[in-house]
Amino acid sequence: MNNRQSITSCGCSIERLLRQEESYIFITGAQKQSDTPAGKTYIAYSIRISDTETKRRYSEFESLRRALSRLHPTLIVPPIPEKHSLVDYAALQTRVKDDLPMIEKRKRMLQTFLNRVASHPELGRDHVFHRFLESGVAWSDVLHSPPLSQLPKNPLQMVVSKEANVQAHKYNMVLSSNLIPIPSATYVLKSPDPRFEESEKFTFRIANYMSNNLDKSQRKVIRRLGELANDYAELGAVYNGFSLNESGSVANAIEKIGQAVDASYTESAQMVTSLEGEFAEPIQEHSQFAHIVKQVLRFRHLKHAQMEMIESSLENKKETLESLQRMEGEARRLEEAISRERTIGRNAVDIDELNNNRNNHDGLEDMNDPNEIINDERQQQEEENGYHHSYGNNQNGIVSPTTTLHSNMDASYPPKRSSKAWASPVKMINAMGHSLQNIIDVDPEATRRNQIGKTKDAMDVLQEALEITRKDLSGSSTELQKELDRFQKEKIKDLRDMLIAYAKIHIRYCQKNLESWQEARAEVDKIAI
């Protein structure tokens, strides 16, 4: 059973509870805990689903979300409340984790996170999520066991789609090869998909607008409403004190005004709390959602870039193979030419050999003449002593007939050619080739064939990786488009609920204030003029 089947149904007790109608996950409390008596304390949040209850700390929520994002890089995993910045820690006199409003906010947003994951058609069926909700399970053991322990560090080294016909959510040997290029975030696609290109532009625009405008403005309004509530509390005390200086109907009227102002303080504080939980936090959540969608689209962009880079690498390997094969063909033709030249050289008759044979034949004939033998010996002796044979014979002015005959015979034949080092151009090229071979490579033919073999092996790996990546990109694009459509519907529903809640909060605030001020007016009308 592969990972996809396990995601479809694991049959555990938590999954059965989540499949029940009206199932809901509650965070019922937050308590300080410590692993050891003298150890560092932390806040543990109590999670309850039906009769099952467990406790998890904030860092475990954070690692759960990170694990789901690694397992499902094409799915939009809901956000969790952000950590406080160092400025927040420095600004508060007490530790931030002991701040009750912050803890209550985290409880609400972590509860929303768990229920969003549970209602997701695929994340809610992931057994890793079920293990997080299961009581008595050490979360560190889950993090170091399959499928999380089998995930590669780089999500591009695994298959994420159902259509790739390869085991998903697991380290893939082909995609993890050193031959497979890893694209950078700044890679520009050669053939981008217009649908996702438009989705990226829209998402970037929404994310920037929600973060830089809507979320900031809403926080500013809530902060000012909180300041206004504090001013109402102070003003109510002033009116109540002022009523003590008067008497009769005037004192009653002033006191009623003070009570109306106190009611405004109470309702303003209530409105701030309601806006924080029902409007500001959802706005903040969807601002985080926009950045999460950016990350998901970025992963798809990198997957597309990886496919293009594999195609480019495969083309380069093909060109390299063709070049090596051309070199191999040229080397074979040169070797055949050299072999033919050597064969011709062995069978051909050399002019030098003919001349040598002819001179040897004449020498045998001269051996029959005793005078010629004597003259040859005398000539050889004179040459050894550094004298020319003609000078030796003619030093007394006497020319012997034998010497004259020998001179005439020497003139009738050309002198013997000295044997040269390079009998033919082919021999010279062959010798130079061997010299260069000794300098550059001992066996270039074996090296070239080895390179051809390695190039073919690399092409096989790249071709297999290209087929896997193409199917994975196609399948993940389809799944991502479905996820974006689902999220868009959910976002519209959330925005509708947020706007309705925003209106109801203000209506309730206005109605309560209207009742208080109507009572104050009735009391003021009793003042006799």
Question: How would you describe this structure to a colleague?
Answer:
It is a single chain. With 529 residues, the protein is mainly α. The chain folds into two domains: 1-155, Phox-like domain (PX Domain, 2-Layer Sandwich); 185-332 and 440-529, Substrate Binding Domain Of Dnak, Chain:A, Domain 2. 68% of the residues lie in helices and 5% in strands. A three-stranded antiparallel beta sheet has the order 1-2-3. Strand 1 (26-34) and strand 2 form a beta hairpin. Helix 8 runs antiparallel to helix 9 (248-347) and helix 9 runs antiparallel to helix 15. The longest helix has 100 residues, at 248-347. The chain starts with a helix and ends with a helix. Belongs to the sorting nexin family. One of its GO terms (biological process) is protein transport. InterPro entries: AH/BAR_dom_sf, PX_dom, PX_dom_sf, PX_Snx41/Atg20, Sorting_Nexin_Autophagy. Residues 307-344 form a coiled coil. It is a peripheral membrane protein.
Element layout with pairings:
Layout: H1 3-8, H2 13-19, E1 26-34, E2 41-49, E3 52-57, H3 58-71, H4 86-91, H5 100-119, H6 127-133, H7 139-143, H8 194-243, H9 248-347, H10 351-366, H11 370-384, H12 389-393, H13 401-412, H14 425-440, H15 444-525
